[in-house]
Design brief:
Blueprint (H helix, E strand, L loop, with lengths): L2 E8 L3 H10 L6 E4 L7 H4 L31 H14 L4 E2 L4 E7 L2 E6 L2 E10 L6 E2 L13 E4 L14 E4 L3 H10 L5 E4 L6 E2 L2 E2 L2 E2 H7 L10 H8 L3 E2 L3 H6 L3 E4 L2 E5 L2 E4 L4 E2 L3 E4 L3 E2 L29 E3 L16 H12 L1
Parallel strand pairs: 1-2, 1-6, 2-3, 6-21, 8-19, 9-10, 9-19, 10-15, 11-14
Antiparallel strand pairs: 4-5, 5-6, 7-20, 12-13, 16-17, 17-18
Helix pairs in contact: 1-8
Length: 345
């Protein structure tokens, strides 16, 4: 027997819960499903030292603040527990331990095949977020088996690594935080693909995100010139790495282009022979389970406008730069969720 709802949300992370907050205010039936065993697990399972670069005042979903000093920076376990408490507080209909097998549309209804049975819905909102399948470049196949390799998605703490030099490939916020942590106990190389831009956590005793709001930066959309510039020039928040680079505690090298056994070779010819490699190389989308045509382009990106696809009733939420820079962030995803809830109803 298939269970029927007006709307099903796939994903019970921050995007799915924000969607649930607004759907709860409408007179429609809906369900949120997730493959995890607990709400917040996507945060719980990240590296132990992870601290958000947004203060608590800028890390909350609609309607409920994050406990603690609004000017302090929450760690990943605080956010995991916050999401779980948020779900309970608003009594959102979340069904866990439910993996989606495929999605298709028939007779104007969406059919969702899952590990917990089959579901029918008028609307489907895919809120699985931007962190799906860890991406590792093909050059990892040419790395000696003597070198320990791990993706940042599976890194937890330094105890996982072998003793000795560690190379971090990728200098986004995660790569930079991990490099800063490891520099306390070992020689660290950081492979950087483009010029790094650093912004402080605070400016004149105000969070940099407060300034973003005041100056209108947070409102810049993907269609604006400012939005396009920001997307191509995403900065590193925090300056802890700068003094480490200055004194050589972390050694910056150019983009790694190939591997030759125990050597990693950079674009400028530099060579590094690490004992460990951490691939902080991001993620790619996993939409193989979606059997709806004209939704995903040849680069495996969603074809959407503010989360609305060409297929009536199929929506996305929580994508990176879905509409604004904050679309995939705790503070910003609520605006997109509210827009979609109003559009649906």
């Amino acid at each position: 027997m298939e269970n029927s709802y007006n709307t099903i949300v796939v994903g019970a992370g921050q995007a799915g819960l924000a969607m649930g907050y607004y759907l709860k205010q409408k007179s429609i039936s809906f369900l949120i499903i997730d493959s995890s065993s607990r709400v917040g697990d996507s945060w719980r399972h990240r590296y132990d030292s992870l601290t958000l670069f947004t203060p608590r005042s800028h890390s909350a979903l609609p309607g409920m603040n994050v406990e603690g000093s609004p000017h302090g920076y929450p760690n990943k376990d605080e956010i995991a527990d916050y999401l779980e408490n948020y779900s309970r507080h608003y009594d959102l209909p979340v069904q866990l331990n439910t993996s989606v097998i495929n999605l298709f549309k028939e007779n104007k209804k969406f059919h969702l095949i899952t590990s917990k049975g089959n579901y029918i819905a008028k609307n489907i909102i895919i809120a699985t977020g931007p962190f799906q399948k860890p991406f590792v470049p093909d050059i990892q196949k040419d790395v000696s088996k003597d070198i320990f390799q791990i993706h940042a998605a599976h890194y937890r703490n330094p105890s996982q690594l072998k003793e000795g030099t560690t190379l971090i490939v990728g200098a986004g916020n995660s790569g930079v935080q991990i490099a800063t942590e490891l520099a306390e106990s070992r020689e660290v190389y950081l492979s950087v693909g483009k010029r790094m831009k650093f912004l402080p956590y605070t400016l004149l005793n105000r969070s940099i995100f407060w300034w973003f709001q005041v100056l209108g930066v947070s409102k810049a959309t993907i269609h604006s010139k400012l939005g396009q510039f920001m997307k191509k020039n995403d900065p590193i928040i925090g300056k802890e790495l700068k003094p480490l680079l200055s004194r050589g505690a972390v050694k910056k090298i150019s983009k790694v282009s190939k591997a030759d056994g125990k050597s990693l070779i950079c674009q400028n010819g530099e060579k590094v022979q690490p004992e460990n490699i951490i691939w902080a190389t991001g993620y790619h989308n996993d939409y193989e389970w979606i059997e709806v045509p004209n939704i995903i382009d040849k680069n495996n990106n969603v074809i959407q406008d503010r989360g609305i696809t060409k297929e009536k009733g199929l929506y996305f939420l929580g994508l990176s730069w879905q509409y604004r820079r904050g679309s995939a962030l705790l503070l910003g995803v609520g605006e997109d969720a509210k827009f979609l809830a109003n559009h649906i109803t």
